[in-house]
Amino acid sequence: MSRTAHTSRIPHPRSPRPWLRSEATAALRAARRAARGPGRERDLAVQSLKAALAAVLAWLLSSWLLTDTLALMAPWVALVLVQATVYRSMARGAQQLAAIALGTVLGTLTLALLGHPVAAMAAVLPLTILIGNWPRFGDQGIYSATAALFTVTAGGEASAAIAGERVLAALLGAGVAVAVNALLRPPTYLRDTCKAVWNVVCEASRQLETIADGLEEPLERDRALGWYHRAQRLPRLIDGVRSSVAWTRESVWFHPEKEKRGEARRLAPWYDETLHTLDDVAGNLSALTGILLEAADGDSAVPRPAAGVTEPYAAFLREAAAVLRAYGEWVTHPDTGKEREELDARADRVRETHDRLRGELPRWATGDPEAVAFFGSLLRHARALTERLSPDQAGDHQT
Fold first, then answer.
1. Which domain range does residue 72 map to?
2. Whether pTM exceeds 0.70
3. Is residue 29 in some structural domain?
4. Which pLDDT tens digit goes with each residue over 219-277?
5. d(CA 123, CA 103)
6. One domain, residues 117 and 208
């Protein structure tokens, strides 16, 4: 084999330029969304600016009030404690202060006993790293080891006064972080919750419309399998709603604005009920696609529905998709009455269509027990899919 033939098989390293171009484009899009209006990108930008401001303020205060060389602990603590909610800043601040205080005291004692920074480091770091895993510290336990490391390597005298001043610097940084986070555009997450709910509603309604379009053609297993797999992804979107509801509830703890606290507390129970409704929608959609998948299996005893069945059922699913979108509009617009009226009208229409379909069940089933069970299941899950979307069932968030 020639040298040329051998070397031609060696793959050339891939250029990083496409990856860099893709990352730069994504960053530019995020910057444009942040500049365009409220959203997740703007929230992150504001939080970053607040963290930087807190660090600068903590450094100025610590330089003015404290003389120790480790006054840098104040801006360091302030930088990491501007969290996504005021409550989280306070809770993690308490954990971090406890970890820093413990690490500082242990580092000071070890350095005073051994007298040499390297020996003190070798002795104190394993202990503080182990202590940092204590669940009470949460994810702030590592600051016990870093505080001990700063203490034994900073030089100077190992004394109780210096240790106390360093803990005071950390306390100053934590106080500045909490104050900045609470007083400058304190975060709430009602907007994120509305967006997450709407994403689930749009995906579920699109799935219903896709199934309706597919039922106008002969039922095929590959298509039905695609419907089923897509329905299994819906619970992951609902987990996003669940997370957003939790963030909304947490964001009002210690929030300084009374109006926003009241709005979030009023709507949090409503969104809890919305979660139950979306869970029911996902469960019934999964069951519905499972029934259609079984019918599409050529080896199954379940009969394949004929066009006389699938066409009216497809029309019913389109109405179900419409009532689902109307429900989403009602949930995400709590202060208007037009959405409630639209949802009532859509719900009445889908009930009437369901009753007509149920009346034709004997003609579809033609006395076959398998057919009766199949068509009955289709109607039952389709009705259950829309029944919880009625305002009377879902609970009125206006109250």
1. 37-183
2. no
3. no
4. 788 888 898 999 998 888 888 888 777 777 766 666 666 655 555 666 666 677 788 88
5. 12
6. no
